[in-house]
TrEMBL record:
EC number: 2.1.1.-
Protein name: Methyltransferase
Subcellular location: Endomembrane system; Membrane
Keywords of this entry: Glycoprotein, Membrane, Methyltransferase, Signal-anchor, Transferase, Transmembrane, Transmembrane helix
Entry membrane topology: Single-pass membrane protein; Single-pass type II membrane protein
InterPro entries: Put_SAM_MeTrfase, SAM-dependent_MTases_sf
TM region(s), chain numbering: 24-44
Molecular function GO labels: methyltransferase activity
Enzymatic class: transferase
Protein family according to the UniProt entry: Belongs to the methyltransferase superfamily.
């Protein structure tokens, strides 16, 4: 009995002295069931979706660099996939924004040699992750070839240019359009008559000349019209083109001080001009009032480099560059000297201008006018100045055949609108030899062939076959206005953001695809070829940039482990 009495007493005493412990246990149990109820409520009602969307939107709109990194990671991994989540639109003020040519930033830089007008790109971490909106009233551009003569005014409503140039017949406002009658400052009777005048002195129609660099062409309007163009400033760096790539360099009132800075700009033009090519300058300083000294200096520099003065017709001067390697700079007041044979004349990505003349002997092979085949034969003739052989296999010929098959597959099986008026401005973002562009040569398109700056340089091959292109690093924005391309094509997209030496990622696919969206027109097309794993990642990012994407199998003849993603940029408005 004593024992039993003790147990009873202990139980009674415990119940009297610990009532809080029971209440605490009840509270914990109740809170647990409350959380379970909240979980089911959020999981199976629209309130949960709204709360999740609110969190995602907070991440999307945050300007905190740490949130930006989290957002990029979430998009690439697919955490934000589904539910209609997409990147926000940038401010309406950014409709014509070019990140590397931003006057709000560049106006604080040095004006010496136009440094402030060159590329000065922001870090990705310092830029908002948003999509450039179209301007108010934007329409799908006028189709080629009608676009050559008129464009929609609201697509680029820059009336001041029309007001200044209207009397010259260059462009005029006419209702809802800007029209281009064909005139210009230096050719008031029209560009056709001007070209006819040049044809009296230059073999324009004989197939010998194909690639032309027109300096100062009025880029934004040119691209909207369907004419190849690119933003670049001749300042402190080489232009992003290979040595001896252009058959003709043309300047119509471009106002470049060719003889300034010890003729540095003329030397750069000489690097770009193919031996046997032609230099045409119309306007100042050619026989121009009050510019007698500049005109005299220009003739002196050209003479020092053995350029043959073909004609001076009014305010137009035409020179022919010597085809051989015999010219040594003569005694001159500019101190012109030849570069060393070891100079890499085609190194041109963020490369400072040199004040020495490029030796033709520094570039091996036959590439002078008269040595390379005429157009169109040069398109498929293997260029001699670049190695295209690997263990007995002609990589150039194999590449050409591969792209003929691929383009046929794009048109017939994937129903991409190549060869129709819907596609005019095309870019190949990883061009190699330009095989994709060559396979499109019968279509009414032009192709900007981009050779990534961190990869082997094959841009000289592209120019030797009569195509055009430039160097670019895809971890930076491209130098063009928003909405300038109808179709973007890229093979091995992930290689564009990977360092080829270390294998480390240099930037993100999200940043690259946001930039692709900036330069792509609404309802434009993107074609991506890569491994199935990369294509899945690209498809996830496509949702965030508001593209409608479909994944296809490769063409039957291909042995590569790859898929093809075809996406359309939706035409959204703010």
């Amino acid at each position: 009995m004593a024992i039993s009495s003790k147990r009873t007493t202990n139980t009674f005493i415990t119940a009297l002295i610990n009532p809080r412990q029971w209440r605490l246990l009840d509270m914990i149990t109740a809170f647990f069931f409350f959380l379970v109820a909240i979980f089911f409520f959020m999981a199976f009602t629209h309130y949960g979706d709204s709360l999740a969307a609110s969190g995602r939107n907070t991440l999307l709109r945050s300007s905190d660099p740490r949130h930006r990194l989290r957002l990029v990671s979430a998009i690439e991994s697919g955490e934000l996939r589904g539910g209609g989540v997409s990147l926000d639109a940038c401010s309406a003020e950014e409709v014509d924004h070019m990140p590397c040519e931003d006057p709000r930033v560049n106006r604080f830089l040095s004006r010496e040699m136009n440094f402030y007008r060159e590329r000065h790109c922001p870090r990705h971490i310092d830029t908002p992750l948003c999509l450039i909106p179209p301007p108010k009233g934007y329409r799908i551009p006028v189709r080629w070839p009608e676009s050559l003569h008129k464009i929609w005014h609201d697509n680029m409503p820059h009336n001041k240019i029309a007001d200044r140039k209207g009397h010259q017949g260059w462009m005029k406002r006419e209702g809802q359009h800007f029209i281009f009658p064909g005139g210009g400052t230096m050719f008031p009777d029209g560009a056709e008559q001007y070209i006819e005048k040049l044809a009296q002195y230059i073999p324009i129609r004989e197939g010998a000349l194909r690639t032309v660099l027109d300096m100062g062409c009025g880029i934004q309007f040119a691209l909207e019209r369907g004419i190849p163009a690119f933003v670049a400033m001749l300042g402190t760096r080489r232009l992003p083109f290979p040595a001896f790539g252009f058959d003709v360099v043309h300047c119509s009132r471009c106002l470049i001080p060719f003889t300034g800075y010890n003729a540095t700009y003329f030397i750069e033009v000489d690097r770009l001009l193919r031996p046997g090519g032609y230099l045409v300058i119309s306007g100042p300083p050619v026989q121009w009032a009050k510019q007698e000294k500049e005109w005299s200096d220009l003739q002196a520099v050209a003479s020092a480099l053995c350029y043959e003065l073909i004609v001076v017709d009014g305010n137009t001067a035409i020179w022919k560059k010597p085809a051989g390697n015999m010219c040594q700079p003569h005694q001159n007041e500019f101190g012109l000297e030849l570069c060393a044979d070891s100079d890499d004349a085609s190194q041109a990505w963020y490369f400072k201008l040199k004040r020495c003349v490029t030796r033709t002997s520094s570039v091996k092979g036959e590439y002078a006018i008269g040595e390379i085949p005429k157009w169109p034969e040069r398109l498929n003739a293997a260029p001699s100045r670049s190695s295209v052989m690997d263990n007995g296999v002609n990589l150039y010929e194999a590449d050409n055949k591969r792209w003929i098959r691929r383009v046929m597959h794009y048109k017939k099986s994937l129903h991409i609108k190549l060869g129709t008026p819907a596609v005019r401005n095309v870019m190949d973002m990883n061009a190699l030899f330009g095989g994709f562009a060559a396979a499109l040569i019968s279509d009414p398109v032009w192709v900007m062939n981009v050779v990534p700056a961190e990869k082997a340089s094959t841009l000289d091959v592209i120019y030797d076959r009569g195509l055009i292109g430039l160097y670019h690093d895809w971890c930076e924005p491209f130098s063009t206005y928003p909405r300038t391309y109808d179709l973007l094509h890229v093979t091995n997209i992930e290689s564009l953001v990977i360092d080829p030496a270390s294998g480390e990622r240099r930037c993100s696919l999200v940043d690259l695809m946001v930039e692709m969206d900036r330069i792509l027109r609404p309802e434009g097309t993107v074609i991506v070829r890569d491994t199935p794993e990369v294509i899945e990642k690209v498809a996830r990012i496509s949702e965030a940039v508001r593209w409608k994407a479909t994944i296809y199998n490769k063409e039957p003849e291909s042995h590569a482990q790859e898929k093809i993603l075809v996406a359309t940029k939706t035409f959204w408005k703010q």
